[in-house]
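for the writeup, i need someone to sanity check this before i put it in the appendix. the sequnce is what the collaborator sent (i think, or maybe the updated version? ugh). structure was predicted straight from it, no edits. if anything looks off just tell me and ill rerun, i have time this weekend
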Amino acid sequence: MKAECEQKLLSQLSVSRKISLKEAMELLGISESTARRLFARLEQAGTVIRTHGGIQSVTPEDLPYSFEMLARTNVEKKVAIGRTAVDFVEDGDVLFCDSGTTIQCFCAALAKRLQSRPLHIQVYTNSLANLEMLSPYMSVNLVGGEYRANRKDFCGELTEKALRSLHFTKSFFGADGCVQGTRLTATDRKTAKLNEIALRNSERNFMLVDSSKFRVSSQVAYTLIQGTHTIVTDSDIAPETVAQLNSTHVQLICVDPKSVSSDQ
């Protein structure tokens, strides 16, 4: 019950950014004391910031990147996006998977696919989380370098050098934000540079981005949306954003998390 309340509250925060004590009580059907305890738990976990009379969500502008924190937000949407995107993987593919939490959900869906139907594919990743997800079911090529514990990944000159020498049929990326609906962004230059290299060395690029990311901007833009091939997001994306993305001629797939969950 606690986990369900936390997730429901975090899902609402991904839309509204702020929520008052009264709104939380009405949303969850809980007492004031229970709502305050819930706020305290989420603040202690680093997921929210307490404000006068309520809480607000934590964004990349508020604190450094935390894989653990982001893995607990918009879970249903990320799982649905990952399950949808995995249908694009074909026999013979050489894949690159970047290190975000949505890509981890994609790798989880890929692992499930491999259990039921083996595929002859190669996977390269700079993410320990992706490696742990996939390695029980296939050989994974880990692209090493400087380790970043907050992202559970590798970056830097060694990682960049390795990526420059590789070619991928398909690459799957996440994003930390979006600038004016035209450029996807990352929280730091090292992540942005890695993604830029992989994008250039891939025949087809997939952006797996939950709808909340189109309402925030991170520090470093790394690709024009019109320079990608496919964006997979969730059905909570704003209509005006859909119209803007459709004008770029990028393939846009909007997934209803409830329908995908019920189909699995």
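The first strand starts at residue 18 and ends at 20. The chain has a mean pLDDT of 86.
thx in advance!!
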